[in-house]
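Lab notebook, bench 4. Still working through the backlog of constructs that have no structural model yet. Next entry is a single chain of 351 residues. Request: give me the structure tokens for it.
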Amino acid sequence: MKKAEDFKILSALVLILAIAMISCVAKTPPIKTPNAIASLEKVNLGGVDQWILIRGTDIKNPVLLHLHGGPGDSEMPMEHYFGVELEKHFVFVMWDQRGAGKSYSAKIPKETMTIDQFVSDAHELTLVLKKRFSADKIYLMGHSWGTILGTLLVQKYPEDYYTYVGIGQCVDILRNEEISYQFVLKEAKTRKNKSALKDLEEIGPPPYKDISGLITKQRWLRKFGGMFHDPKGMRKLYQIALKSPEYTLPDFLNYYNGSFRAVQAIWDEMTKVNFLDQAPRLEVPVYFFEGRHDYGTSWELMQEYYEKLDAPNGKHLIWFENSAHSPNLEEPEKFSEVMINQVLKETYVKP
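Model written out:
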């Protein structure tokens, strides 16, 4: 009898917590300096309402726009974890791209979920930020899928950006999937993981018959350390995200809906990306941040692209020895230190 009563009490508490989370209002904490900005706001890009988070201790600092991964995997809920030091030196802008996180809507036409449209949205946002902060240029940083957008942006509009930072840089998507698959297959054999071997043999090597093959491979890639070097990395990421004041429970639900929908819509087009051929030269200074254990976007391909890239204004490859695909999240202190004491110092001249 007592167990039944305890269950009812627990269920009631869970329900109350869920209602509280649903009803709470998303907001970003104030920054208490004279020229600070701390704003969570909606902008219309390409005819679709989308959300941006802007934080910085001084609006006179240079603007840094972050392009999240996925597609559809917002990193806004992690800003309070890896962006705090950046706020002191940049006006740091986190953007939930169309269909992602706070910008999710089932009404967004699937045919608008294309690489060209995302690049157009990002450039439109760039122009909005330049005008708002009276900036001739801004800084651009992409992570994973965001590096596809970032590379195409600086290739097409180099006059708008001080520099480009690629974290877990995409290079050749089809070759990347082959390397990634062979990594998890080898790990499955080494670990004698029968479940992994069964799954991987069923989907076979890429190209996959459908998106379910990619999802299966990615699941084991996370399990075997190709996405986070720390075995507890994904769990820590979830715990960090859930503390975000900018996200409510509906936002988190939309995060998962948006991620799945975006990958379905864009994956075929993504497989045609090969920057070794499509972006052999970039006119802006380029910084690549690469985890030594990255098989989400293969570190081997990243190194090959770096060596072949023609970057007349400079290129730099910074290794993160204790990271896989997300050095900004696995080594946030080093990430901030390099952004502030190398990237910013080497590329920014005050107007």
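Notes after review: The first helix runs from residue 2 to 23. Residues 191 and 224 are 9 Å apart (CA to CA). Flag for follow-up if needed.
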